[in-house]
Fold these 4 entries.
Entry 1:
Amino acid sequence: MMLHALASVVPNLILAAEEGKEIEAGITEGPIVEFAWLIVVIPILTTFLIVLFGKKSPFKGWLMAELAIGFVAVYGTVLFILNATEGVVYYGQIEIAEIGSYTLEWGVAVDGLSIMMYFLVGVVGLLVFTYAKGYLEGDVRFTWFFASFSLFAGGMLVLVASPNLIQLIVGWELVGVASYLLIGHYWEDMANVDAANKAFMVNKVADAGLFLGAIIMAVSVGSFQFNDVIGVVVEGENGMLSQYAFWAGLLIFIGAMGKSAQFPLHVWLPDAMAGPTPVSALMHAATMVTAGVYLLGRLFPFYLDLEGMFAGDVRNIIIVIGGLTLFLMGFLAIVQNDIKKVLAVSSVSQLGYMVAAMGAGAYTAGLFHLFTHAFFKALLFLGAGSVIHAVHSNNMSDMGGLRRYMPKTFWTFIMGTLALVGIFPFAGFFSKDEILASMKYAGGHGQPIANFILVLGIAGAFITALYMARAVSLTFFGTYKGDGHPHESPSVMTFPLMGLAFFALTAGWTNMPGIYTGFTEWLATRNPLSGIGDHHPESFDFALIAIVTPIALLGLGIGWWLYGRNADDKTQAERDTFRIPVLWPLWENLYYIDDFYMTAIVRPTMGPLARVVLWFDMRVVDGVANAVGAGSLALAQGVRATDENVVDGVYNATGAATGASGSVLRRAFTGRVQQYAAFSFVGVIVIAVLFIIL
């Protein structure tokens, strides 16, 4: 397979925006980058190998999946280090088809954005796959799980490796199919099947937006290539793309809303917790729900105001949707009793921060939070899974006092909590601070709506601290309320917790404004992004930190006072009695969004509309089909009768006449020359007589 590099000089985001300078592209060729396509191929290939040979292989397919994701982790880490030290930009592609003037290509993108995702999917995936072996031990569909899990990771890698819209959509759909299989893994319970169907259908509705937006964009540019689209934007060509840019940008964002579970298309994600906990961890950390944010990052220049020609106006919609999501979804976590659903709606809220950052024009800030969030949210989900594994229940009402029995799980969960809340020096502090600082900057530089979203972001920090304090208190403090004797999880499950805890502590140190901004520089290696206007704080906004940090600590304090104080002297029910009139039922019923969809869409579709469609199908469609069938039958019978009675009759009569003539003529041809001469003489006489008469 021949690959070709499409590398050029790559601008540094900061310098390009502020000084118009460029940095060297770094590595654009060599076996390390040219064979990066193996990152995509090996997990996909492993899926099929597990299906075919998994049950007879060592560890029933887990080892094959572990080795495949381990390869991705090692290769992704090598590329990550290489990009950090020298910079890497490489686009390798092969042509697979031509449709009219459009060329369909398949390939691999190796730049700052894709390398970050390779690293996350590989490293987080490796730890989650390791954990899953202990968690799924004894599962009746152990092999099938790891086949689906490998496809899940592989589909995400197809998506992030894509240099074009077609390949991205293929990866997008692979992730969706794999998520359907994994969410419905315990299909014996109909609720799990319903959850899988719900996730699939909601995403299909959103995917329609992505497909239409991609078509509009490709037709306008004449290419499906991301670099071609971004090149048009950077050069400021006022062609077809500028005419339809708003609608293309909006439709693509709708697709991102579905995958990243943004309000009001978030309804599928809490129910998706029906799947095994390792699925939840990988889904929320490095696959699926991060895909929407990744897509916005890949097309980020398209959403900037470049002389008002492209989709800059969509950014106001993006920041509002992200702001509403980060604020409204946080409240839902306060009322959840299922520990996984607490973390699920928490992920939706944190994704709202990332999306809002993109809407504020803060490319680096949004992706930096995606980077740090991957580690501490995977840690929290695996910690929750460790607890569930010990008490055999998802409900926090069956927990309590587990810090005494599960110290490793407890302390790593605390580290994940502090990172999520944004307490210094944990990772979430740095990424969340950069998002809020970027919103503040955008609010003062031509985007007034960002000021309002900044307020929601600060309020969101308080809400995050409150619901995490509640979750920690109800799970680890007080007295144990469940059955049996809880115990610490085995080392195959606790080792990944410690690995993720390390990253939850240190990942934020890669981007400290005014001190060290390695992440910004690593992310800058992509082509082309000159003049994108991405804002980077030159130093910490200490005034903002002085506001946000006390608010977060206040949320932790109130949460502890409501749920953790005197925990040993109270029952779980007594500890969790805090209610706010009116708002509490609203949150418990998820803002009645599900009810609205059922009332406004599902039931009318399944009721009157379905009956109308059924009547139309039976009476009109079937009637037309039956009439056409009856007419065709009658015509066939008529043709058959004509064939048998007329055509065959003519053929038979002709044959009989020919046979009779032949018999007569056969008698005349005796072979005697004298007879032939006599016939000739008579013929001449007859002709002469006729000539005379006539």
Entry 2:
Amino acid sequence: MDIEKIKKDYLKKIKQITKNNEEYYEKNNPSLSDEKYDRLKNEIIELEKKYSFLNHKNSPPKIVGFKPSKNFKKVKHKVPMLSLANAFSLEDLINFEKKIINFLSKKSDFKIFYSAEPKIDGISASLTYLNGKLKYGLSRGDGKEGEDITSNLATIKDIPKIILSKDFPEEIDVRGEVFIQNSDFENLKDKFANPRNAASGSLRQKNPEDTKKIPLKFIAYTYGFEKGLKVDNQFEFLKKLDSWGFKTNPLNKLISGVKNLIQNYNEIEKKRSNLDFDIDGIVYKVNDFNLQKRLGYVANAPRWAVAHKFSSNKAVSEIKDIEIQIGRTGALTPVAKIKPINIGGVQVSNATLHNEDEIIRKDIRIGDTVTVERAGDVIPHILSVDFKKRKKDNLKFIFPEKCPSCGSKTIKEFNLTTKKEDAVRRCSSEGYSCEKISVEKLKHFVSKEAFNIDGFGKKIVESFWKLKLIKFPQDIFQLDYNIIESLEGWGKLSVENLKYSINEKKNISLERLIYSLGIRHIGLENAKLLSKYFNTFQNFKNLSKTNKFNDLLNIDGIGETQVNSVKNFFSVSINLKVLNELEKLLNIKVSKNEKKNGLLKDKSFLVTGKLDKISRAEVKALIEDNSGTTVSSVSKKLNYLITGEKPTKKKIESAKALKIKIIDQDEFLKMLNKTS
């Protein structure tokens, strides 16, 4: 057992969770999704269970919430606001009930009633009432003391300021959740990642008038300190809250037995997408207050309650529409516009449908109820359709035969590699004649690995296009800055900064220029290979005149697919015009082709078959280090064919026909005065 390694891993996880808590509670901008946070928290707890020597003040079982902000006065909670243990599976729930029965020394058939309450994904708050009047309102803070945000909470209409009911306690802390409805969040999504962050940020405004502008809601669900409360159980207390003027969750239920809890859980999960507020699970509380008192607490969580979390990477929603997006290569990508849902702490309103074949295979239609999956940072996608909920008027989606942007015919190309028709349908227009393709090409042109023009992002590309300031790449270097300065949001300084950034990037390497052109199948690595091969921009541009496209096949790493893409690019007249104009405006650096006088200078090699003494990567490296070149096919330009086990017969025959020297790996190594 490597104790130091275990400690290092443990402290790393503690640091991550502490950092996220700070981001979540103080900055309203957490770096971890709910899924990752819960997983990390559980990993820390499991490590502490396994290794007794692990202990830290910021361990999840020891902390609740986060230290109160310096912007607000701190107030101690009379009764701490604790967190809840989590349950993720049926097994977790069975163990939860088993522990309760064992602790109470009851028989296994002892019937426990639970108050099952959907857990709203918002911000906890505690409201202290004295003689029926709201005295102050606190945030959770670190669980022991919270922030005095009374003035901000008082702006929420759902929170009663005075309660005149005769049975209202002399003093009580009413606790609940502050949240924003999904429908209201639509107007705020540009400022916040999700409704929870919006609620948190709004509650912590220094000026209550700013909070007042935000449509916050409050749902009550429990109490802290009380004096004079006359109820015996949780469900009765929820009814009392209703009678006192508080809002409670309409989906609250009184349930007994784990089997019934699961059934209710499944039913609510299905309803989740139709709710106007986010819920991330269901909280189960032992209903009887006397049993709650007997059960007590463990660490910072009650024994008598647990939060049964929904799957953090899946959710059910409804497809409102299907839109077609067009990329820089003309690919038509269908995107489902779904009813907004929260998946792993992220508000999701779009899901990719990949391509036409995917829609047909899964029979996805507008109006369908679907399961949406979001795994990590991957774009959310439609996992499945609930056909039982499909309405008769949900018609099949017909993929457009004409481009929605320019009206050109959409086609499916034949893939040379798979020898099949592509799954992706494309706009058949070339060059910059399609608006959507043109805009996406320009976005790519200014992107990080291309020209990387500081301050010239996607939104500016779209804005300048609409204003007809740019249409082709060369337009970027010939902008009318006087017009830009007159635009809203642009001042003299920002225009000067933009001008400086553009002028700075007039010096560009050949490889980055080739990449920036957005030629299909030519990524950065292939651009490097082409740059090395052509060496100068003039050589690259002259391809249209020399027509020596097939010679590109001699470049190791460049195949038929790439060659055909380059050929198609040069066949479009507007692309040639773009190249000519860019040449006038830019200083294109010559590729550094260092000539070495190595042992393999001016010699070319190709490997066929499996090598057992040296890898192909090593062979390539040795050739290049010794001034030789590698090629991808047998031609007159090939000097040596290196053979291994089970070589390609066709290559052997072609080499013999062209009288190319055939050697094995040992002979190759001898050429370098090396042995295997």
Entry 3:
Amino acid sequence: MPFAKLLNKLGLFKKNASSSGKLGTFLGVFTPTILTILGVIMYLRFGWVVGQVGLFKTILIVLLANLITLLTSLSLSAIATNSHVGVGGAYYMISRSLGLEIGGAIGFPLYVSQALSVTLYAFGLAESLKFVWPDVPISSAAFLIIVAVAILSFRGASFALRAQLPVMALIAISLLALASGAFTGPSLQSPAGTIAIDPVGFWVVFAVFFPAVTGIMAGLSMSGDLAEPRQAIPRGSVAATLVGLLVYLAVPVLLFVGADSASLADDPLIWTRIAMFGPWLVLPGLWGAIFSSAVGSMLGAPRTLQALALDRLGPRWLAGEIKPGTEPKAGMIVTLVISLLAVFLGDLNTVATVATMFFLSVYGTVNLVSALEYLSGNPSWRPTLNIHWSLSLLGGIGCFGVMLLIHWPATVFAMTVELAIWLFLKRRVRKDSWGDVWRDLYEALIRWALVKLNARPMTARNWRPHMLVFVSNVEKRLDLARFGAWFAENRGVVSICELYQGDILELNVDVVAREQQINSVLKSHGIVAFGEVNIVQDLERGVLAVAQSNGIAGMASNTVLVGWPDDLSRLVRFLRVIRPLKHLNQSLIIGKTNPLVSFREDQVQDIHVWWGGLKRNGDLMLLLAYLLTRNPEWRHAKIRILSIASNELMKGQTERFLAQLIPEIRIDADVDVTLKSEGESVTEIMHRESAHADTVLLGLATPNDGDEENYAERLAELAAGFQNCFFVHNGSLFLGDLVTPEQVE
């Protein structure tokens, strides 16, 4: 046939569709989409639109509405040409880009809306029958229409969609009849005494018209039945959108020529009065358009439900069998039941409005998916039909804006339902590995932020601890890992590093698997940190090498935390890295922690800071103490600054300095300066005052070369008297300035 050959050249019909059991572009996408677009609104509301706002504003409404749908068509085309589109159409696209939680939050309302659409179309067809059968029982007729739609759909998508071809012919005939009548017949005038309904605002009229162009995804729902979805979806949806635009630009002109404003506004079936041969050429097209839209919804809804079931968001028995020529029978039965039950609701005006909200939320989300995929910079985003992210974003804003214009309470209701479903699914869905857009977007944002961060110089004011915590085994040193996270207090990045000493080829360590295990352990214990594994030849050199390489740009580690070693020789080796770490502007903390000590949110703890001066690590110790109290487990903690004076003069000077310092640094702390008595050692005083403290912070000096062993022995003696203690060495560029401005003397 010449027409079929022409369509084939345009890419709208595939010869192999029938032989493969799959649908081509014309039957699978273009036909259901265009028949959903050219439906009830065109026949029953277009005259009212022209009568309310005039021809010029009607054209403006048509252009604005179609701009939104055209942008959405281009967005879904970009997504469709970049990746495989499976069963479920819009749900499949959204879930694979934004994750199952958001996909399900959109998918379930989408399915319900598709199922209710069958009922809405059935009611519209039943009410239109009143023009030839005035006493028709609306509910009973709608019930029978739904059953007829289901029977036709059960025959299979291919059969049902082929049955829509005659409907297209009927619609074309009705349009020709309207054109002929408008230009050859007399212009209709409202009878004398007839008063047109009160005019309404532009956006109210826009809201009434907009559902006429919301059928652009009718073909997308059939994605699992398409021979070549990547080609069929963009070609069919864009072609249907453009054809619909041309028709919607022509119809208001014909209506304007054929009747005056009062007649257009007052008569829902003005077409039957303008068209040649009256209702005989118009009503068959009207009925066919409504019936075909109902069939499209009956075919599309079960496939959305099937896709949800395949992703285990619904009962598995709804998944059915997926192969050419098969229908999701279980889903169709459920859809039929919902549609029939909805008949008994009687007044479906509110339901129809909410259903439109759900459809528009899907369209808006598809636009956002396209924009986010572009902005994420993912190398895998390579659509053959590309669209700039700004156009997709404009389409998304347009969709959500129209929702508010149509009915803002229904918009709030729809968004609330979707939010509730998202919150429900977020706790229950599995994490899949197909790679959603969020990781790509996070990486893009991080890269942008790191570039900006690296361009700004670090100052004492914005310094924060990025902790690198070395442990031999995370499971055994959770106490140290937890303190590392507490010291950072969600203000810095914490890395928990297991350090293995030996040859990387000889050690049987699966680095990737172990890092995943570490991260799992940290997450299970509520520790916000990043696990990593490093294999080094030598402990000292390994610590320095990892410290240099950990992090990136302005987020590189600046504070190393190591646990208290089992033997003195290991402590000596830690002390030897103080100088090179300071050369790298990195601080060192050696922590002795008691894994048997637990901390509760309602517990009152004591944090003791042994003061030696701001530039003798005092600033970092105070900052760590303050950050510790910002954590829920330490919110009731009391900071106590302790110092030892050898005489009354020194005691008074220290007390006056701290009294001036504390208000300036805005850290709530008590001060206690002890006067050293003759015969009492400093260690004895510290043990006496802080033996029962929950955490003790002490300064860590840089030992002289060759004196590391003696210094290690003194530290071991001192640490023996505390439950949890941390020896702190400030190796940053801002020694003495981390908590206080320079003006404090």
Entry 4:
Amino acid sequence: MNLGQMLFNGKCKVFAPFYYIPMEIGIKYFLQGNFSIKIINIMKKYLLLFSLTIFLFACNKDEEISQDVILPPVIELDSEDGIYVVKIGKEVVIEPTYQNVDYAVYSWKCNGRIISDEPQLKYIFNECGSYYVTLRVDTRDASTEEEIRVDVNELAPPVISLVTPSIGLKVVAGREYILTPDIQNAEGATYLWTLNGNEVGTENTYTFKQDELETYELTLTVTNEDGQSKKTVSIEVVDKLPIEIVVPSSLYFTENNTKYVELGRTLFVRPFVSISAEPSYQWSLDGQPIEGANSLVYGFKPAKTGEHTLTFTVKYDNQDTKAVLTRNISVSGVDEVSVNIPVKCCEAAGKRPFAAGNSIYSNKVYEFVPAPGQFVNETNTAGFNGESTHEAACAYAQKRLDNEQYVSLGGWGGYIVVGFDHSIENKGGYDFSIKGNAFDSSNEPGIVWVMQDVNGDGLPNDEWYELKGSEYGKPETIQDYAVTYFRPGLNMDTPWQDNKGNTGAIDRLGNYHPQEFYYPLWIEADSYTLYGTCLKARTEQSPSTGMWSNNPFGWGYADNIGDDMPNKDNPNAGALGNYFKISDALNIDGTSANLSHIDFIKVLFNRRYRCFRINRNRRFFTSLLYHFNTFFRLIGCLDMKSNTVRTGIDKFINISFRLIYHKMYIKKHMYTCVMTL
């Protein structure tokens, strides 16, 4: 478990549904995952004793995971920071907006009692002070809570909320944008809008329209009998609204963006869309719009073999309606961007049977794309030797794996792709095993993806299918997560930005990992983006020791003390196996992929953690140095002896682990970094 290096900069509420750092700290990290990869195909059939049947199959709890993605209620407050200021004896009015609230039940609770069951709160506090109110929304399938602070004062000047898009307010020249702020304590208030210092309006709303391409400073001043408040927003006028559509390819190092689908199967496509407005979608096939295909995810089932072109169009909106950028900003007009997706439907290549001379282990690394991290490019313990091409990086990874050594996947999204000299058959039970070194307080889950070589070219350029785990479909799990990493300067931190508007940097720890770049040397571009699923952190800090624990998930993840491993006792961070079923492979829409076999496996580090750092005298000290490097050793196999399931010890290569202790003193405290190799 590596030290979390990724910082999140922004307001606390931005990070839902993840764990929060106090707002005065305002910092979050990713923990990095280091993985050693070997995969064993479970070649032998096995029988289970009744007791073991209960243990091994009950752990997977397939019947408890719905294939329908549950959408939790969404609460958007009419205050940017969740704080409301009201004058004593005056009624506070809180009017959130909601999404996914069919058949919802509302409750507002303060000091342990419910003060309202309406969607909006209207309430009078008769004493000065700060009151914490919890808004809870319950639907049939999920619930959401939001904590609100109400400050009751003798005087209550206006409070202005004017929410802008997370990527900044970029507007199109010549188009009208209507700004409608939320104002607390607006009774009897006056308004003054200024643009670059010049008065432009005195109403509670303002319509912005400019033709010159430049950045403007718009300021709203609101005055009531108790005081005055100001709010300034920066508005960049551009000639075209930036709309970005990305359809991730199966491999980073490929120029082939063709999607392959087996005849009789459905190809599901989900583009990643970046736009500062609420768009509409339209899918077309071979130039003709598809009726009713207006969702982000589309399933295409060809009627015959051949080549097709899917077109995905993003548009907002039309001249007659208002598109909503945020709660407070709307715009009229039309912007449209399309992307073409080549699709080839073919008869599926057959399963490659296991034959004499085949290995039960993976035999080739096809792609090695770590996220930036403290072990990437590191020569001392990670064994790099200046690899600057992808071919060299794959050769490095293959050599390390052949020698039973780890490779580092860095921060969130880093991955490795391996293949076999035969196909792994879906036998309906556990089909392969992934070994890691997790223990109770150190779980760094890797989500596993599988692929069938449909086009038969021997390359992992077909479709990836995520293996369902215990967290799949939960409201807090983000299925369409992406992080972009940017090339840093020499000996500098590595910046990043995700597709949810969060930004930060991976710290460089020169005293321990002194390589000049944590950015992979074989990534030639100045930035690269990784895509995948992001799980909610289960990180907790002990109130007595101050140590942090990464708690396990239920099942379905590598390097995780879950119910899918027969032995969970691992105090010395030894190699333990998690077991996986090809039958758990899912389409993008959550339905079963029904794969008969697979040919490739991808392991992707997929978790964010809560950590923080402190700043003293312009020097950063990490407050969390109790961590472990995560290594996947995908060498587990199921073996049948005496009609039981057990670890195939005779097939495991003995692994020696050594502990490396890094010590750092902050005042009188010592923090220890434990790394297993």
